[in-house]
């Protein structure tokens, strides 16, 4: 069976959930071979093996942390040369897409980004994408070379599929030309204790209607009662009420949770582009004409400062 | 010596319009008004700020696209760019990201550059891969996804806000930079700027000028193929209630019914 390379997104050996989703999708088109760059490959290999990785190609070099993107492209190319895979899958993060693009160019292959589904087809993998602010769904495939596809988080439910997950060292030579962009310093983001926005099953977002940074705890309290991540619209971020890293929308994060709750968000195209593929959508807004209500499964026309705290209390009561 | 800055911009269909596909499954450009991609305005703005901080710099704004794409160039010129290059050729119709990066890279080399500035992504395709592809093709450093950028002493430095960390980056020129919408609000063209833009030179190039064969680009040369496009079914009308004191409770009832609580 053909092998499929899966790029492992991890923080110090802790594999992030989108990688497990990639392994699940990879099994539809071949045998997953994970590529782990950096330290603690043995830690990662356990969970990668549980999710179907037959092999973990591991390389650790200081250059991965010292220079931006290009050394990782060198490593992935080495893995590609070692395996001759049927496809290469990467997460649709900013870095994942940049690595994918440069790899595709080097190996003479086409690239598809932001797939929301991948399946086997007669002429190679078929990727589903959600385009024009999720108003269209397209099916695409790569016509030249080995398909390089990046996949959005929450595109598949990770399935357990025990496999060997044997760690093999991958020899990587980082080219001098890959040492062009120095990472002078790195400040890890402080953990809020809440789920990661792109990975969360439930997201609660606040917008212009939250009317000030001092009111965002109302949104956070609801999120915490549901075990959800907190998002914000561009209007709320531009006003400085919430960090850009939490922005949901075309120029922020694209999310596709099981449940999306929009509070005080009108639903401009910029926001809809980032959340329209959510499974269940709920909105709370004072303005009954707000375009967000066109998308909802359930909407409440009302003041979020009445509705959200009441909902939070009710959730807490029901959860005991 | 003058700092040569090339800003890559894209003419895109207005996202607030009703966008759809043409018969050949390329983006239908006839039905929706086009404009300079909003995310590229941030690139023009940062290029202008880099120029203002430099002793001597010149900004060339570059686009690949049909005749109307000239509008995007005019907007950038009216903001303050010095000159423009427009790559236009009928054979370019349907070119994908890899093909576009080839055309841009050849045009950038022909123009001459020390710094290439791009937006983080286009607002239509939203792939966000072009800056990385350009760096690979030009074999220069990629300093991408920057929320802050500056150029000094032959070096570009910037801040990249990633998913898990914030990084400070540094590279020697020549380099390819991309900036996010957090890099700073783009200026509005002044009346004077709009008048001045009419007199600024726009160079027109075709594939022959760039020594690119027609089969390397266009729909035929594309490395990817769209087999089908379907309009997403409209969401079935949901339940909408007015809060008369019970809105929170009613919503909790709905969420419990859906097993979210």
TrEMBL record, chain B:
This protein's record includes keyword Electron transport: yes
InterPro entries: ETF_a/b_N, ETF_b, ETF_beta_N, Rossmann-like_a/b/a_fold
Gene Ontology molecular function: electron transfer activity
Keywords in alphabetical order: Electron transport, Transport
Coiled coil: none
S-adenosyl-L-methionine keyword on record: no
Family membership: Belongs to the ETF beta-subunit/FixA family.
Function noted in UniProt: The electron transfer flavoprotein serves as a specific electron acceptor for other dehydrogenases. It transfers the electrons to the main respiratory chain via ETF-ubiquinone oxidoreductase (ETF dehydrogenase).
PANTHER family registered for this protein in UniProt: ELECTRON TRANSFER FLAVOPROTEIN BETA-SUBUNIT (PTHR21294), ELECTRON TRANSFER FLAVOPROTEIN SUBUNIT BETA (PTHR21294:SF8)
Name assigned to this protein: Electron transfer flavoprotein subunit beta
Organism: Streptomyces angustmyceticus
